[in-house]
Structures are given as structure tokens and as C-alpha cells.
Amino acid sequence: MPNLSRRSVVLSVCAAVVAALLAVAAFAPLPVSIVEPGLTANVLGSDNGTPIITVKGVPVRTTSGQLRLVTVQATAPNASVHFSDVWSAWFKNSQAVMPRDAVYPSGGTVEEINKANLKDFAQSEAAATSAALKQMGLSPSQVHVTLRLEDVGGPSAGLLFTLGIIDKVDGDGHGGDLTGGQNIAGTGTIDAAGKVGAVGGVPLKEQAARRDGATVFLVPRDECADAKADLPKGLKLVPVTTLDGALSALSALRAHSATPSC
Fold first, then answer.
1. In what helix (H) or strand (E) does residue 37 lie, and over which residues does it extend?
2. Are 81 and 29 in contact (CB under 8 A)?
3. Buried b vs exposed e over 177-211: b needs ≥16 C-beta within 10 Å?
4. Of 99, 205, 216, 237, which shows the fewest CB atoms inside 10 Å?
């Protein structure tokens, strides 16, 4: 009996320790962020009354379609995310759990992260402008482009900004809308040579696009697998690798012809 009693005590102590560790784990902050669909914005339109794209030095045209950039939103870098938050997000297709370092690769304080995002946005703006003007055969010394959009940072809107600049100035090359009047969304970085790069968070961005009325989604081809995994109903997926490819795809959409697929 004494041995059984001692064993019971040991088991009780072990159980209490395990319970305490689980309780600590449940309430301890985790190095992750909860990410979900964010805002979208038609780059051919305005933000708080100010045109998102302003072009000076050449005539601009009135557009009727939409080129909608998409974003994700994440818990703040200084916010505490616990096991219960992760558990809840696990069962929602509108949320994803990602390592905090992947969401905020620049690290540091909120101020430092915002500064890094604005720097990335400025570089994206310059690349988008260069790619668009090169595509249209215009000189940067004659044309001045300004991009204004609050609460958006990073480089992932590069492709949509480039297409927006082209649509504002040249349209489809014949005076018509580049979009054919459709609501087209997309994501992807771009460099001055017109190469489209991957971004991340595509499934959540697709949800944001469809929520706000888009029927076509331009996606970097390298992200086709993620893009197909949970594609919202009513959203057509069009993969691209270059600006030329994106323009060709839009031309095919206007002509109701076959477009590239994943």
C-alpha cells in the first residue's frame, strides 16, 4: 500500500506539472501572425478624393473598367497571438497563420517596419513607372507619374500600378479600356524590365478580390499552385510572368479568346 500511495502521489504531481505547462503554453504569446483578406483598391480611381495615379506631361484618357490591387492584413507586429487564436484560425479559410518573420521580414519596431514598407512601395512605384513608360515608348524626362494610396506598403502592387499607368495614358493602344470594362484584380511585383515576381498570400488576396467584385485575377505564374488551392467561385485565374504577357492576356480577355491558365 505505501508503494501504491507513493506512485499515486508521483502521478498526481506529474499530471499537475503537465497541466501547468499546457496552461502556460495556451496563454504564452507565439511568434506568428494571423493574416486575412485586406482592402482592395481600383488604381484607376481615387483614394479619399485623390486620384491614385496621376500622370503629367502627356494626355490622359477616361477609363471605365477597374484594375483592382489587393492586399492582406495581419495582426500588428507587436500584438500577442496565443494558441487559442491559432486554433480558431486553423478552421477558417478566411484566415491563415504565418511566421511573424515571414509577414514582417524587416523585423524591428512598428515604426521601422512601416518605414521599410514605405521604402518598398517607393521602389515599386519607380519600377512600375519605368516599366510602363518603356512599354509605351515614352521618356521619363517628359512624363511625371505620381502614385498615392494610403495604408498600403510593400512591392506587391507593382504589376497593377504598371497596368494602371498604361491604361490611363494609352489604354489598349486603340483608345479603348485595357480591361474591356471588366473588374480585374491581381498581384505581383514588377521590375523596370517588366518581369513579374511572386508575392505571397495569394489565396487570401483572391478572397478579397472576389469580395469586391473582381471576376479575373492576374497572378504570378510561380504561385499557380497556391492560387488554385482555394480559388473562389466566379474568379478566373490568369497566370503571368511578364508585363507583355499580362497585356496579351488582357487583350485575349477583351476578345473573349483563350487566355493562359495554371
1. strand 32-42
2. yes
3. bbbbebbbbbbbbbbeebbbbebbbbbbbbbbbbe
4. 99
CA-to-CA dists, residue 109 to 116, 117, 224, angstroms? 11, 12, 33
In this predicted structure, the answer to whether residue 6 has a pLDDT above a threshold of 60 is no
Q: Which of 249, 192, 193 is nearest to 219 (CA)?
A: 249
Is 27 a residue whose pLDDT tops 80?
A: no
Burial of 24 by CB count in 10 Å (0-12 exposed, 13-18 middle, 19+ buried)? exposed
Higher pLDDT, 96 or 193: 193
The pairing of strands 32-42 and 46-47 is unpaired
Q: What b-and-e string marks burial along 34-60, b requiring 16 or more CB atoms within 10 Å of the CB?
A: bbbbbbbbbbbeebeeebbbebeeeeb
Distance CA 184, CA 209 (A): 8
CA distances from 254 to 98, 257, 258 (A): 37, 8, 10
State the pLDDT confidence band at 36, using cuts at 50, 70 and 90: very high
CA distances from 224 to 183, 201, 218, 242 (A): 21, 12, 10, 15
